[in-house]
Structure formats: structure tokens, C-alpha cells
Here is the input.
Amino acid sequence: MKVTSNGDWSVDSITDDWLTVAPKSHSGNGSITLTAEANKTTNTRNASITVRVKDAYGNNVGSKTISVTQSGEEKYRLI
Here is the structure.
């Protein structure tokens, strides 16, 4: 996922531990890699991450929340 920013940004929250992000902070434009553990249930699961931008004085000046949905495994599969 691409981040376009003229300030320092950080991933402030991840709602579930099955989803990880790297890097968790950067200055200026950059990219975030999302990695999801395999969903071994048949249930769809959801998570969200929030990216915050700070100005040169350390004040929060904006944020964006991204939702991630992962489908569950198929219970039956015909081959």
C-alpha cells in the first residue's frame, strides 16, 4: 500500500493480531506491506489499521483508517 505524505507518519493501531504491517513508521512518501496469517476457519474476518501523520512539531495533522477483509477457507472443494 502506498503512503503519500509530506510529514512523518506512523501506523498507530492494528485491530487484530492476524494482520501485521511493515514498516510501522516513515518520513515522507513510502509503502506499507500488509501480511495476513492464513485464515483456517470458514469465517470471514476483518481488521483495520490507522495511519497518522505528524507535522514538524509532532502534532497529529491527519489520519486514514484502512479496512482489510480476509475470506475464510472453503469448507468443501471439488477438484
Remarks:
- The chain has a mean pLDDT of 91.
- The CA atoms of residues 50 and 65 lie 4 Å apart.
- The longest strand covers residues 60-70.
